[in-house]
Amino acid sequence: MKIEVIDLAGAEGACERCNVPLRVAGGRNVEARMLRLAKTQKGYCIDCAVRAWFDCMRDTFRDLRPEDLRLPHVQQQTALVMKAAGADARPEEITWERVIANWDLPLRGAQRGPAR
Asked: Is residue 108 part of a domain?
C-alpha cells in the first residue's frame, strides 16, 4: 500500500451528489482500486461512492434492486470486494439505508473505470 499525503487535509466540503458535509482526509492509498479518498473538497461521500460503484458494475448486478442492499450477504460480499480492491473506505463506514434512500439521485457522468 502506497499512502499519499493530502495537502488539503482537514478542508471542508460537501458531497457533490447528496450535499452531506465532508472533510478531506490526511492521506489516501494511491493503489486503491475502488472507493479511494478524495484529494480535494470535491467528490462523493462514502454512501454516494458506493452507489456509483454499483452503477459501474451494473452489468454484473443487472437484477439488483436498491432494497437488496439490506441483505446481509450483499453487504458481506461488498466488504470482501472492498478488501480485495484495497479500498480506502471501510465497510462499517457505509450507511446502507442512505445508499438506498439516495439511490435515484443523479450520478455525474460515466462512472466506469478507476478514479483519477
From this structure: no
Is there a domain that residue 92 lies in?
A: yes
Give CA–CA dist 25/9, Å, rounded: 5
What lies within 8 Å, CB to CB, of 41 at 6+ separation is 8, 11, 12, 13, 14, 22, 24
Question: In 3D, which of 44, 50, 55 has the Cα closest to residue 112?
Answer: 55
Render pLDDT for 31-85 as a digit per residue (tens, 0 to 9). Answer: 888 998 888 888 999 999 999 999 999 888 888 999 999 999 999 999 999 999 9
* Number of domains within the chain: 1
Is 37 contained in some domain? yes
Cell representation of residue 45: 461521500
| Predicted structure pTM score | 0.85
- Give residue for cell 447528496: 18
**Alpha carbon distance 59, 41 (integer Å):** 30
| Cα 96–chain centre separation | 12
